[in-house]
Amino acid sequence: MKIINGIEIADNILEDVKNEIIKKNLKVSLAVILAGDDFASKTYVKMKRKKCTLVNINSYLFEYPSSVGENTILDKIDELNNDKNIDAILVQLPLPKHIDEKKIFSKINPSKDVDGFNPINAGKVLLGYDDAIFPCTPIGIITLLKAYKIDITSKHITIVGRSNLVAKPLLIMLIQKKKEFNATVTICHSYTKNLKSITKKADILIVAIGKANFITKDFIKKGSVVIDVGINYIYKNDSTAKIVGDVDFENVKDLCSYITPVPKGVGPMTIAMLLKNTLICHKKNK
Ligand code: GUN
Question: The pTM is what?
């Protein structure tokens, strides 16, 4: 069993982004919109901005209370779309319930859509356009698999989850009729029957459901690769929090050929790909 080191691979990507920015003397900027007071979102945004500083990307934070009106955010996006000093716009999810996520992401200029959540970019991913912006977590997972020389071609990959953020774009990317891809993918979700019998057939199992330690060893095929996308906060009595994945790591690890830990697995890759996408947006805008 080998534990995949997400930090190491993410650091290599950050180093490349930083070197390119310095070598070409680029002025790269990311605007971050954060609405509400979700603890995890605040933590992610803080980590994302810290890494921006590390690679010489200027980040600007626009923070709103959870009562913020939809139009206030739409107006801010309009302003940022027209601001020549802003290369990329990130709207941290989840948004407060009264705000229509689809309206928000439709408003972002596709060339500044760092998450690839605008319908133009999502469509480009679906149709295999060369200039598509790939969502950060799926492209982060594919980059991790490549870094560890884990072959995807003709493998049976099972994704547990069906989110627009991770599962759907990942499915599309994995089945691409392109060298290095060509996987066979099964998507499972809360209405799937006999989940274990399906996950047990997977050469590569990717779990993105947000349920702490849900996947135990009876879901796993011996020798398979397990990618855990979950980041679940377990709050302790002293109000500190422990982070665990969707996979019961200790229970499962000895059955796998490779496994990502939580933290230090997929999470750092999402951030690294965000900064790489910011640089891609910068080039699109110039
Ligand atoms: N919330 C959790 N993951 C993500 C992500 O990749 N992008 C955005 N914008 N919000 C998130």
Answer: 0.97
